[in-house]
Amino acid sequence: MKKTILISAVCLLASLVGASAMPTTKGWEQVKSEYSELKSIVKDTEIEILTAPSLVVVSSSKPVKIQIFTILGRLVSSETLPAGTSQLSIQAHGVYIVKVGELTCKIAI
């Protein structure tokens, strides 16, 4: 009985530690207004990637596939965004790799 409780406690602790190590995201949202604190990271003819505290903002003239990875290679988000401006809230500060279409860049949040 004590072994079962101990194993359950260790599994619970491991899942909590693993969950806290991953950035928490709510998902991509369409942006209706501009933010004054946005910093442009990459600007292409059709795509612009911007950051703000805890945010990644992507503006595109056409639908694009976007992937965001932690610096260690773990996938944070993979979506196809519609044309326009979309944002993703990332609560964990750090360095991320962003791939939008054929464009790849490194961002710090």
Descriptive report:
It is a single chain. This protein has one helix and nine strands; from the N terminus they run H-E-E-E-E-E-E-E-E-E. With 109 residues, it is of the alpha+beta class. A five-stranded antiparallel β-sheet has the order 1-7-4-3-2, with no helix packed on it. A hairpin with a 3-residue loop joins strand 2 and strand 3. The longest helix is centred in the first third of the chain and has 20 residues. The chain is globular and about 30 Å long. The protein starts with a helix and ends with a strand. The N terminus is likely disordered.
Sum up the structure in keywords.
alpha+beta, disordered N terminus, five-stranded antiparallel beta sheet, single chain, 109 residues
Q: Nutshell version of this structure?
A:
Helix content is 18%, strand content 51%.
Q: What is the CA-CA span between the terminal residues?
A: 46 Å
Uncertain segments: 1-22
In the sheet with the most strands, the strands line up as: 1-7-4-3-2
* Beta-strand percent range: over 45%
Query: Count of helical segments?
Result: 1
How would you state the average pLDDT, rounded? Answer: 80
Gyration radius (Cα, Å) is 17 Å
Care to count the β-strands?
9
Question: Sheet with the most strands?
Answer: 5 strands, antiparallel
Order of helices and strands: HEEEEEEEEE
Tell me the layout of helices and strands.
Blueprint: H1 2-21, E1 25-30, E2 39-43, E3 47-52, E4 55-60, E5 64-70, E6 75-81, E7 84-90, E8 95-100, E9 103-108
